[in-house]
Prior knowledge:
The chain is 73% helix and 7% strand. The chain is built from 15 helices and seven strands. A five-stranded mixed sheet has the order 2-4-5-7-6.
Amino acid sequence: MKKLFRPAIVLMDRLMIPQKMVLMAIVFSSALLALLYLLVREINMDIAFTEKERSGVDYSQSVMGLFIHVQQHRGMANALLKGDEAFRSPLLEKQAQVESDIKMLDKAGEIFRKSLRNIQKEGPGNGLLVDIYSVGTINTADKWTSIKEGWRAVSEGVLYMTPFESYEAHTSLTKDILSLLVLVADTSNLTLDPEIDSFYMMDTIINKLPMAAEYAGQLRGIGAGVAAQQSIGEQERAYLILLSGINRSTIAVVKENMLKVFRKNPSLRPRLAPRIDDFDKFLSEAIGVLKSGILNTSAVSVSTEEYFSVFTKAIGSSLRLHSEITSSLKEVLDGRKSRLKKAKYMIVGFAIFAIAALSWLFAGYYFSMTNSLRRLMYASDSIRKGNLDIQVSLETRDEMGIVAQSFNEMSKSLNNAMKDLRHSNEEFQNFAFIASHDLKSPLISAASALKLINRRLKSGQLDEVDGLISDASNKLARMQDLVNDLLIFSRAGTHEVRFEDTDSAQALKHALDDLGGPIRESGAVVTHGELPRVTADPVQLGQLFQNLISNAIKFRGSGEILVHVEARRGAGGYIFSVRDNGIGIPAEESEKVFEMFYRLEKDKYPGTGIGLATCKKIVERLGGRIWVESVPGRGSTFFFSVPARGKINSHTA
């Protein structure tokens, strides 16, 4: 696995920390900016898509007004051409209204096509989309030109046409207007809308509702002519029946579309449902008049004005429904556009925040790292100059913190080692001074005795020779004891400590075996409680027991010698105690008894004063401490601790 990262490791090993951080920042930021660009580009495309739809809805709404007015013109013309002169003046007024619609749509169409060009120019896209929208704007312009030419022909020749010619010319014109609506929808993305509610609303206002209005308009035009003539032919009857059936089915499709819209967007139901019901009601009333006044009677019994009015009311309700759905669709599209822009701003804001946060964190990491390195370098330099008490204090908890902790442990160990060395040097100096003094004294005494012996032998005075020889022997024997104890103390300080699982009861048994002679001679009674297994050096632990018990036997009282050894669990290890009923130790001397060559009541009790100093040395090397609690005349209790292995400093090992 490491081989996979080997090139990166090699690269990072060759760079300084600032260079490493800049490199990582560039790589991360590049990926983040690329992702941001793709997301924003996608959102911008969706916004441009929605804006095109919005432009198409606006233009379609204007076209729908022209469509309704041309339909009305068709019905009025059919009634007039079939003999009802009452429609001449309304026809001319409607004609002027259509002319006004055309002028308005000239401007609206140009705005629509310009909007498409601007949206496509400003928004993201590719060459194919540019071609598609360019073709769409050209087609809508061509279709609008064709519609204006068709209207010019109708408006100029309507009074000279037959009813059939007028109907056909008007119907052809309305079909062109409906084709323009579909073309606008195609060009402005409305037919490609991805959402269910907006798609079916678009389908309703572009395809279904205009066709329903057209069928109603055809019913109005043909029926108005029939009412004006007060007679109906079979062909007209059949056509009216067919149109009324198609119209009802178209209304059913409109209702179905709107039910799908309401399922997706229930908030639109209160607004649109009443308009749908009105359209259905008015259209049903108009068809009812058609059936009762024309289709289901032997003679036409409805007036032209009544018939025209009831269908105009139905078509007007369809126009109001169309307007309401169109307004709702605009709101839906505007809401979508607002959400997309909000999402874009949030993404951009998040990206800016992420980059700023990343820069802030990188800067913090850089200063943290360099600060940690400076502190470590300063500490290293301080150690180099001899300041072994230096400690590195870092607030970081990462690997640098671990390095600092290891550094502090190393510094502490080195400082302890140096302290031990200084202590050993001081101890050695004291040892050398005291040892030279204590060794010199018996040597001087022995030398003096030998000189006296030599004089006595030369002078023939043999009566004191035996005493002098005995005195010299005692002095040399004391020197031998001192040398032996010094060797034991030296081994206690230099012997390699072997920490292992040790049965302290077994170590005590070995010590008692070695003290078998003194114990039998003194009649001492040595007892012990339950002793634990500890991690220690079994040889030195046995030496510790031997020295303390031997000390208890030496400094015994007048009665039976009683020694008891026990242990208890303490903080971080075990605390052993060796209790005797000897002469005790004065409180002011409880610390001095552990000093080298210190002897308690040295004139009364023999010894070199090294035994307890050896005990202290052993306990310290085991990682514990030793102390004594005593009442003079009632005995002493020596305590020493043996810590758990994990608690022992490494320099004691």
